[in-house]
Amino acid sequence: MPDGATFYTASGSGTDSGTDSSVDTNSQLDNESVMIIPRKVRRVKTEQFLRTSVSEVDEVFLRDFRARLRYHFMSPCQKYSIRKRKPVKLIIQVLKVFLVTMQLCMFSEYQFGYRDFIDGNVQSFRRLFLLEWDAAFDDPVQKITRPYALYTRQDFLNHTSHVVDTYFGLEKVALGNYSYLSNHSVPPIQVCKNQFNVTHIGEDNVHYLNPKAIRKCFEITHSYFEEDGKTFNISDWGEQSGFTLDWSLVSSMRFKFSLVNQHITSLKTYFKPVCYRFDITTVYDNTRHTGKLSVHQEVAYDAADCVGALYEYTSYQLQYMVFQCVLDTFITSIAVLSIVLCFRSIHRSWLMYRFTQKVWLKVHSKGLEPADETKFFQLWYFIIIIGDGCLVAGSMMKILITFLLIEEYTMCALLLGTSTLIVWVGILKYLNYFPNYNTLLLTLRKSMPNVLRFLVCCLFIYFGFAFAGWAVFGPFHYKFRTFTSTMETMYSLINGDDMFATFAEMRDESTLVYLFNQIWLYIFIGLFIYCVLSLFIGIISETYEELREMRSNGGGGKQTELEAFLNQVSDDPQSTDYHSLRNYDDLSSCLCCLPENLTDMVIRF
Fold first, then answer.
1. N or C, which end of the chain has less CB nearby within 10 Å?
2. Residue 4 burial by CB count (10 A; 0-12/13-18/19+): exposed, middle or buried?
3. What is the mean pLDDT of each run of 10 residues along the chain (605 residues)?
4. 194: helix, coil or strand?
5. Tell me, what's the pLDDT at 226?
6. Distance CA 238, CA 65 (A)
C-alpha cells in the first residue's frame, strides 16, 4: 500500500498505511462500511500499481478496480441498488419525452393554422389572377403531361388583361379581406421582360444576338383606368409607355404586385391576428421558344403592418403566451442540463478507457481488443446531444415566433421535430439494459456490418440501372424526366408501387426505346424484388435467429477479455465486491475539477 494513504471509516478515524497495520486496514474494509475513499489515495495507489511488475499486483486494488469498472457499465437501476444514486439522466430523458411532445403538439396546432392560411391564400390568388385556372393543374403528373400554358397571341392578351383588371378591381371581385399596401392610392403593377439584344444584322438579314438577356421594367398605374369600364390591353398600353414585344427575342415576362391580408382564425384564438404581405408574381416563360408559353405564379409572403382594423391582445392571450414562454424556457434549461450530463458521461468514459488501457497493458502486456474499446464510447450520448441542441435552438425560435419577432415556422418545425424524434428514440438506450426489450437493437447492431457490405454491392447495380433509365427513358416518360425522379420511381418499383402505370405510360414513339424499356423494367423488378430484397431480409433474419438461439441456450456468445474480466464480479448489489462503492458520497464526483488538496479538505469536512 502506498505511503501516506489514509482510509476513512464510518467512525471517521484514519489508519496510516505506512506501518504494518495494512492487514488490519484491509480487514476493516471487509467488515466496516467505508464512508469515502479520498481521491488522492486512489490516485497514488493506482500509480504505484502501474509501476509494479505483474507478479507484484495488489489483489485488493485489482478487485476494487474490477468492481468500479463493472459499476461503470451497469444500468441506472443497478447503480441505484448499490449506491442509492438516483438515475438523473434517465429521469431527465423521460421528462423530456412528455415536455417535448407537449411542446411540439402546441406548436403544430398553431403551425397548421398558419400553413392553412398561407396555402388558402395561394390557392385564392391562382383562382383570381390566372385565367381559367383549375385545381387539376396542381397535380404533379399534370404539371408535366398537361401544363398550364398559352399558345396564341390572343390568349396572351386575354390573360394579361385578366391579371391587371382583377388587381385594380380587387375590392369588387375578391371575397378575401385583401388590401393594398397603401390606403391612399393603389400601387402600380411592375412589368419586367427579359429579352435578347440584337448586336447587329449581317448579310442576308442574319441577326446576331447577345446571349446575355437584358431586363427592362415598366409600371402599369391606376391612371390608365381613368375611363369607367375600361379594360386593360397590353398593346394599347405598350404604345403609350414604349413597351414592345418581339416574341422571337423575349425569353420571359413578369407581372408583380403586392397585397395584404389579416390572419384571423376565431374569437377564441390564443394569438393576436397577424397581417401578412403577399408578393405575387405572374411569370410567362418563353425560354425554350417552342410556341408554348408556360405560365405559373410565384407567391412570397412575410409579416407586415396591418392596414385598416387593428386588434389588441386580450388578457387570456397574454397569459397563454407567457405560459408558452415559461414552458419553452424550462424545456431549454432541461436540454442544457442534459447536454452537460452527456458531456460529463463522455468525459468519464474517456478517463475510464485510458485507465483501463493502462491496466490492460500492465496485466496482459497488450491493449484492449477493438470490440472492448467500443464499449467505452456510446453513440447514444452523441445522438442525445444532437437532439438536445436541436431542442434548444427550436425552443428559442419558438419563443421568438410566439412574440411575432420572426416567421421561421419551417425551420422551427424541423428542429423541434428532429429533437422529438431523437428524444423518443433515446429511450431505447435505457431499454437496451433489459434482455427482453433489446432484441431490435442487438439484431441491428450485429447485422449492420453484413448489411452495409451487402448494400455497397447493391448500390453499384442500382446506380447503373438509374443512369441507364434516366438517359434512355427521360425524353419519353415523365417519371424518368430527372435523375431524382428516376431514383424515386425505381424505389417505388422495388416496393411494388405503381408498376402498371410505369409500364403503360411509356410513349411508343421509338420502337427501340420501347423494347429497351420493357427489358429494363422486367430485369430490374425481378432482380431487386425477388433477389436483392429477399437476401436483405435473410441477412437480418439470420442474425435474429442466432441471437434467439444463443438466448435460449442461456449463453451470450463468445466472451471478450474484458467481459471475462468483468464477469468475475457478482451482479448482486449486496456483494462485498461493491463494499468500497456502497457508501461512496456523490459529493466527490462533483469536485472532480478542484485541486486534490482542496478536494480532500472538503471531503474531510
1. C
2. exposed
3. 35 37 36 36 41 51 75 78 78 90 88 86 92 84 82 92 91 86 85 77 57 83 74 86 84 92 64 81 90 91 69 68 89 93 89 82 79 84 93 92 82 92 88 79 87 92 94 87 90 84 76 87 91 91 86 69 74 58 42 38 32
4. strand
5. 66
6. 90
Sign of CA dihedral 280, 286, 287, 288: positive
- Cα of first residue to Cα of last residue in the chain, in angstroms, is 25
- pLDDT value of position 46: 39
**Distance between CA atoms of 193 and 409, rounded to whole angstroms?**
34
Please give the radius of gyration of the chain, using alpha carbons only, rounded to the nearest integer.
37
Exposed e or buried b for every residue in 534-567, given b needs 16+ CB within 10 A? eeeeeebeebbeebeeeeeeeeeeeeeebeebbe
223: burial class by Cβ within 10 Å (0-12, 13-18, 19+)? exposed
Give, in degrees to the nearest 5, the angle at Cα 451 between 450 and 453.
Answer: 65
pLDDT at 204: 56
- 108/146 Cα distance (integer angstroms): 35
**Residue 196: which of 177, 180, 182, 209 has the closest Cα?**
209
Q: What is the 3-state secondary structure (H, E, C) of 248-274?
A: CCEEEEEEEEEEEEEECCCCCCCCCCE
**Grid cell at residue 330:** 424550462
* Per-residue confidence (pLDDT) for residue 576, from 0 to 100: 58
In angstroms, the CA 577 to CA 60 distance is: 10
Angle at Cα 124 formed by Cα 165 and Cα 269, nearest 5°? Answer: 130
Phi, psi of 191 (to 5 degrees): -115, 120
What span, in angstroms and rounded, lies between the C-alpha atoms of 542 and 264? Answer: 58
Q: Is-contact 393 415, C-beta < 8 A? A: yes
3-state SS string for 39-66: HHHHHHHHHHHHHCCHHHCCHHHHHHHH
Q: Write the DSSP string, 473-509.
A: HTTT-GGGSSHHHHHHHHHHHHTT-SHHHHHHT---S
- What pLDDT shows up at residue 502? 80
The pLDDT value given to residue 3: 40
Q: Which DSSP category does 297 fall into?
A: E
User: For the purposes of burial, counting CB atoms within 10 Å of the CB of 517, is it exposed (0-12), middle (13-18) or buried (19 or more)?
Assistant: buried
Measured in whole angstroms, how far is the alpha carbon of residue 441 from the centre of its chain? 21
Half-sphere exposure of 147 (CA within 13 A, CB side): 14
Helix (H) or strand (E) segment spanning residue 199: strand 189-201
Write down the pLDDT at residue 604.
Answer: 34
Q: Left if phi > 0, otherwise alpha if psi is -120 to 50, otherwise beta: which for 380?
A: alpha
Residue 132 CA to residue 110 CA, distance in Å, equals 33
Strands (E) across 17-168 are located at 34-36, 149-150
The per-residue DSSP string of 437-460 comes to: T-HHHHHHHHHHHHHHHHHHHHHH
Spatial neighbors of 433 by CB under 8 A, at least 6 apart, are 75, 76, 77
